[in-house]
Amino acid sequence: MKRFxxxxxxxxxxxxxxxxxxxxxxxxxxxxxxxxxxIIDAIFLGRLSADALAAISITFPVIFxxxxxxAGIGIGVTSLIARYIGKNQIMDARQSATHGLILSAIISxxxxxxxxYYIEQIFTFMGAETAVISLAKSYMTIIIYNFIIILTVFILxxxxxxxxxxxxxxxxxxxxxxxxxxxxxxxxxxxxxxxxLGIEGAAIATVISRLFGLLLILHHFIKKRAxxxxxxxxxxxxxKIIKNILKVGIPSSLSQISMSIAFFILTSFVAKxxxxxxxxxxxxxxxxxxxxxxxxxxxxxxxxIVGQNAGLKKYDRxxxxxKTAIKLLTTFMIPTAIILxxxxxxxxxxxxxxxxxxxxxxxFLKIVPIELIFIPTGMIIASAxxxxxxxxxxxxxxxxxxxxxxxxxxxxxxxxxxxGLTGIWxxxxxxxxxxxxxxxxxxxxxxxxxxTKI
Length: 454
Prior knowledge:
Layout: H1 16-48, H2 50-86, H3 90-125, H4 130-143, H5 147-163, H6 167-189, H7 199-222, H8 239-271, H9 275-311, H10 315-342, H11 344-348, H12 355-367, H13 375-387, H14 392-416, H15 421-444
Helix pairs in contact: 1-2, 1-6, 1-9, 2-3, 2-4, 2-5, 2-8, 2-9, 3-4, 3-5, 3-8, 4-7, 5-7, 6-7, 8-14, 9-10, 9-12, 9-13, 10-13, 12-15, 13-14, 13-15, 14-15
C-alpha cells in the first residue's frame, strides 16, 4: 500500500534519501527564511544600540518557551496523523487535527495571561541591567499577544507535515517573512508619516506578518486543498486522541521547555560578564542556529516517514531512514561548521560595530560550531522514536545533554576553573558529543520497534 505526500512522494516505498531531501527541503527553506529574518531584526536593532540587541537576546528564552509548547504539541499531532495515514484511517487523522487546534487555543490563553503578569519579574531574575529590562519589556508586551497566532500556525503546519505536505507551510512563510522584512525598518526607524517606534516597531512588524501568515494557511484549509482537514461538523471529543497527542507532545514540549530553561540559566551565566557578553551571545547564537536548521528539517521529515511506515510496520525501512538521515546530515554539518568558524569575525560585524561585542561573539563562533558534527545523531534518533509514538526518549536525551552535561560543565569551567565565557562555550560541544554516543546506544537496543497503540 502506498502513501503519498502532496508532491506525490512515495513515503512508504520510494527512495529514502530522495524522500528525506524532498520533504526536508521546504522545511529548511522555511527555517532559513525565519532565521534570516531574526538575524536581520537583530541587525536593525543592533544599529539602535547594544542595549536593544541585548534586550532581544534576553527575550529569546521566553519566546522559545512558547515555541517549545507549540512545537511539542505539533510534533504529537504530526506523529499521530502520519500513523493514522499509514493505517489509512483518514477520519481519525481529521479528528486528531481538530483536537490539536483545541489544545493550542487553551494553551494560548493560559500562556498569554501568565506572560502579561510575570514578564518583568522574569527579566529581572535573569540579571540584566535596568535599561535592557525596560526595552525587553516593551518588546514582549506586544509579542505576548502573538502567542495564539504562533501556536495556531504550529498546529496547522503540523497537520500538513503529517500528511507529507511541507511545501504549503513554506510558501506561507516566504510571504510572511518577506512582509516582516519590509515592515521592520519602516516601523523601527520610521518612514514618511510613520514615526520611529524603535524596539516596539520590531514587535509590531512581527505580529502583523505572523497574522498574515496564519491567514494564508487558513485559506489553504478553507479551500479544502489539504488531505487532512479539521472536523467542525460532526466533531467528537475523543480522550484517546488527546492522550495520543500528549503521549508524544508532552515529552517533546518538556524537552524544548527544558532547552528554554537551560538557555535561561546559561544566559544568566553569560550575564555575569556584562551587557556586551549578552549581546554577543544572542547575535552569535543566531548564526549558530543557521547551522542547526538542516538537522531540524531532516528530523521533521523523519517523523513523517517513520510515522507512516510504522503504521505499516515497515521497521527495516525505518532503520534505514535513520541511518541515511544521520549520514546525510553529518556530511553537510562538517563544512557548515568550518564556514562559521572561518568567517566568524565577518559574520559578527553584520550585527554591530561594537568591538567588544564582535570579539566576544567571535570567540563563541570559534568553539561552539564544533557541536554541529554531533547534533544530527541525537536529533534524528529522537525523531525516530517520536515517529513511532514514543516521546519520552527525546525528553531523556535532552535532559541528559543540558542538565547532566551542559550546565554543570559550563558552571565548572566558567567559574570554578575560571575559564570565563570560553568555558561556557566548550560546554556546548562536550554535551553534544556525549549525548550523541548515548542516543546511538539507545537506538541499537531496538526499543523503538515496540508498537504504540493508537
